[in-house]
Amino acid sequence: MSAARTLLAASAPLWHRIAGHPFVKSAGDGSLDPAAFGRWLVQDYWFVLGYRRFLAGMVTLAPDWRSSDVLTAGLSPLQDELDLFRREAASRGLELGQEPSPTTLGYTSYLLASLHDGYDVGVAVLYGAEKAYYDAWVAVRASADRNSPYWPFIDNWSSDAFAGWVAAVARLLDAAAPSGPSTPMRRAFDRVVRLELRFWDAVYTGESW
Amino acid sequence: MSTARALIASSASLWPRVTSHPFLRNIADGDLDDAVFRRWVAADHAFNVEYERFTAGLMSIAPTQHAAEVVGNHLAPNRVNLEVLARTARRHKVDLDVEPGPTTIGFSSYLRALLTTGYEPSVAALYSAEKVYFDAWSAIEPKTNHSAPYWPLVENFSSERTADALAALTLLVNNAAPDGPSAAMRTAFSRVVRFELLFWTAIYVGETW
Predict the structure, then answer these.
(1) In CATH, what class is A3-205?
(2) What are the structural domain ranges in chain B?
(3) Assuming Cys at both sites, which of A78, A173, B99, B107 could form a disulfide with B195, CB separation 3.0 to 4.6 Å?
(4) For domain B3-205, is the CATH number 1.20.910.10?
(5) Nearest chain A CA: its distance from B107 CA (Å)
């Protein structure tokens, strides 16, 4: 079994919680409380800023030019995402510069800190974050209301382009661990999925310091 | 006003929460719940393992040999902390390999991630962590029962050796920013204090993924 599939299999119990999380489901059917959506906009904006630094750090660790090509290609779409956040925040009168919640700060810090653990762990972290996001949004894509204010976000993270990026990261992961994931890779992948779930919990219910 | 004093002043509203946290109050009163004590030993050990890596990372980016030496002087006491925690864990059969809670991972990751932002914010974070810890444990040290299972930890965290290392670190922070702390230093200092409070709360009430 490939490294990516092995990691997914090891975290299978968490995967049900990803696709069935009330934040994702209510965003999909359009019933999400606008206040929770606002919290998500602010926190996810912060997350993408931290994630972008993490991904840039991964480029510096890439073992060869092919890996570097894949990782660098992931950086450009982030500018469009940040612009989308800024437009949406402006139209809702939301302040994006506010202090991140503890969970958001902890999650983005975990991504950045994983760079100290080397490329193999970093690529497991990257795959965990992206696969969780893609699988969550693709689970609600078919039934999502196209007229919902949340559709542009659902569409972005369940698109074919995003699927291609996640698949490319899976190939990087498989190449990094041809004999299967190491224990640190398994632990990092599992933690990222759990941090993602906590991130959604925090924006769904609200969280403060 | 010195940089260290300015940092403390800017987080003054948090300080009463540090010294009056119920976790610390329970320790001083001698009625800390056994389950909380056990969570504390495991979480603090996990935190200190990462804290050691953060401190070593800060040493590696210190701008002068003197700064590297002062930062490095915190490695030995941290090693003693880890040994005291490991001894305590053995004596009370606490499993140190248990997966850390989200707050422990978030807090320790924050410190390690901060290294990517440079020396000044990182040294402000080290100062914050050391200052909070020393002030908190010094406040309860006179009241703590010497026969309590956690006395060796309290004694160690409030020792003269810790005070001396903190005094040298204070000078280092002042020298790092002789004209006063930057915004990044203030943010890092404040976030560490707030993470520390969340860390104690997580231990006190119990926290799961």
Answers:
(1) mainly alpha
(2) 3-205
(3) B107
(4) yes
(5) 6
Q: Does the CB of B57 have a partner CB in chain A at under 8 Å?
A: yes
Q: What is the ipTM of this complex?
A: 0.81
Q: What is the pLDDT along chain B (209 residues), one digit of tens a residue?
A: 899 999 999 999 998 898 889 999 898 888 889 999 999 999 999 999 999 999 999 999 999 999 999 999 888 888 888 998 999 999 999 999 999 999 999 999 999 999 999 999 999 999 999 999 999 989 888 888 888 878 888 888 888 888 888 999 999 999 999 999 999 999 999 999 999 999 999 999 999 88
- What is the C-alpha to C-alpha distance for residues B118 and B106, in angstroms, rounded to an integer? 19
Residue partners of B187: CB distance under 8 A and separation at least 6: B121
Helix, strand, or coil (residue B11):
coil
How far does the CA of residue B147 sit from the closest CA of chain A (Å)? 35
* Rounded Cα distance, B123 and B128, in Å: 8
Token couple for B106:
């978030």
The pTM of the full predicted model, rounded to 2 decimals, is: 0.88
The reply to whether B23 touches chain A by the CB within 8 Å rule is no
Q: Is the dihedral of CA A93, B11, B118, A188 positive or negative?
A: negative
